[in-house]
Amino acid sequence: xxxxxxxxxxxxxxxxxxxxxxxxxxxxxxxxxxxxxxxxxxxxxxxxxxxxxxxxxxxxxxxxxxxxxxx
Length: 71
Fold this sequence. Notes:
mainly beta; two-stranded parallel sheet
């Protein structure tokens, strides 16, 4: 269970560490992950990210911009 992730100020990165991981933001309550500007999916395996418009707008309270890095 994810309690809460708050990146605070500046530019913050949430990095998936592992292989074949799935970060499904549609299944996490809005507001549990905030102030993250970068999600890094690089690494081994096929890591995936699923999100909708509300997830995108809620993840960064200051910029409403999310950069996703993958390979």
